[in-house]
Amino acid sequence: HGKENVDSRHSRGRGGETTRFHTVNVAQPVRFSRKCPTGWHHYEGTASCYRVYLNGENYWDAVQTCQRVNGSLATFTADQELRFILAQEWDLEEKTFVRKDQRRFWVGYQYVITNRNHSLEGHWEVAYKGSSEVFLPPDPIFGTAMSEKENVLCAQLQCFHFPTLRHHGLHSWFAENCYEKSSFLCKRSQTCVDIKDNIVDEGYYFTPKGNDPCLSCTCHNGEPEMCVAALCERPQGCQQYRKDPKECCKFTCLDP
């Protein structure tokens, strides 16, 4: 687990002769920090990746966009997951469809109206089947673009741009007309990402993102497993050299 400080070691072989071992390059422990494609945020607690899409789409189009990247509109399993979402900086631009200090995203809930008396009565449901067990939002704020004919409204999570508000977890839930256009939050399972930022399918060999381009692992449940490291000999006839960070056993000689 540590680099050898000596270039060679000695031991006694058969018949008393001295055997010389050369330590060329010792494999280092590797931390795998990237389990999501570029642009996605990883949360260890749910082994999931999250991404905000800024292009304004209605709820149904947003559902399809998330499905195309093997995900779905985000639902949440615990308060800790929601706090993680609220604490992120989502690299938002002027393209968002609400005030600059407030961000609203479509998420994977729908509000079903059961009674239209003096106040709207109803309940939240998860918008798609097959979701893992989730918590449901509290009573919503009703959007301004509601139609009297609609009995199903769609969920928007509002978070705040200012860091102090974000880190205090301040947020609101809106029940909005599903045909309004809004940014949206997709969620997908973590995945294997190779050193060149390609997504790797389950069961395939790949070199994970990290500092060792000579590592070969198998992708299992979004994690690199059964990793094998190749050890490279230093380039011959070269005193100073640089290793290529993305190609195994490729060196650049820095000698004059």
Automatic annotation (TrEMBL):
<dbReference type="InterPro" id="IPR016187">
    <property type="entry name" value="CTDL_fold"/>
</dbReference>
<dbReference type="InterPro" id="IPR034010">
    <property type="entry name" value="DGCR2-like_CTLD"/>
</dbReference>
<protein>
    <submittedName>
        <fullName>IDD protein</fullName>
    </submittedName>
</protein>
<dbReference type="InterPro" id="IPR016186">
    <property type="entry name" value="C-type_lectin-like/link_sf"/>
</dbReference>
<dbReference type="InterPro" id="IPR042378">
    <property type="entry name" value="IDD"/>
</dbReference>
<dbReference type="GO" id="GO:0016020">
    <property type="term" value="C:membrane"/>
</dbReference>
<dbReference type="InterPro" id="IPR001304">
    <property type="entry name" value="C-type_lectin-like"/>
</dbReference>
<dbReference type="InterPro" id="IPR001007">
    <property type="entry name" value="VWF_dom"/>
</dbReference>
<feature type="domain" description="C-type lectin">
    <location>
        <begin position="45"/>
        <end position="187"/>
    </location>
</feature>
<dbReference type="Pfam" id="PF00059">
    <property type="entry name" value="Lectin_C"/>
</dbReference>
